[in-house]
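User: Can you predict the 3D structure for this chain?
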Amino acid sequence: DGIEFNLCRFSGDTPILGCGAGGGSAIVRVLNNTINGTILGDGIDFNLLSGSQTIAIISGNVLTSIADKGISFGPDNNAAFAAVITNNQITTDPAIATTNETRGISLNLGATANGVNGSAPVTVGTLTAQGTLISGNTISNTEQSGILLRTRNNAQLLATVSNNTVTNTNSTNDTDQAGIKVRAQNTSSQTVIVENNTVTNSGVSGINIRAANTATARATVRGNTVSNTNTSNNGDEAGILARSQDTARVCIRMENNSSFNALSLADFRFRRQAVGAFLELFNLGDPIAVGAPSSDLKTFLTSAPQNNTGGNDKFFVTNNFVQIPTAACTFP
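Assistant: Here is the predicted structure, written as structure tokens:
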């Protein structure tokens, strides 16, 4: 890795950085560095484990020819954190990558253990911060997601993804990825605002909000410009996709987005993949039936106050109907 920070990470039974009974704590600032050419690793890599508490500020860095993740954030095993990731320039290089997994910014919470908290306030010394802000970054040339927010086990995440420019992503056409991907699994939950981003040239969906197992994803998707995505024309993808699986719940507010994708069958797709899954759309008064395309979905999404725009006959509802919001759904 170009720059790596570990807190309470163990090698066998030996801590790399010693942690007391309550876990270690740190405030870390990674500012204005230039990193060029990581042949086997990430540009900037954070590993946070074993009850640690971290506040991270990662800003103004220029990362080029990165062979893995540009910025990788991996809290696990009862770690708590808050992060500000702003104004970084990230270009990965699939030509030198060995795993076909290059990403721009990757948050991977709770990969192996429970207890990761990325939503509650974190206090280290006199500084208190809450959630993750990913804003003003420029990301290009990734094999997988430009920005990935993934939670597993019972991890919790509060995040805002705003004003980023994401282009030429997901060259592998991997449907587990996207230009900007929110992916909640197991019993985890995410509360995310995705707004005012520009996403172009993605192999599959430009923006994808997805929950599986019994997880919950609460998302506001607002003011984004999505174009020339789902260039593989995958029949289950779209410029902007909301997808729930198993008995998971997606609560989504969608406003003022522009999605025009010449090679994609759908500019907007709502995919409630299982009868037991939940896909609840903010402000919806009546369920919207399956339709490919769906004139009812188009009418709702393009009317005030939603005010989304997309191509004619490119609004899709697949598998099962879209649901009206219930008391179980809250919207950021």
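The chain has a mean pLDDT of 93. Residues 295-302 form the longest helix (8 residues).
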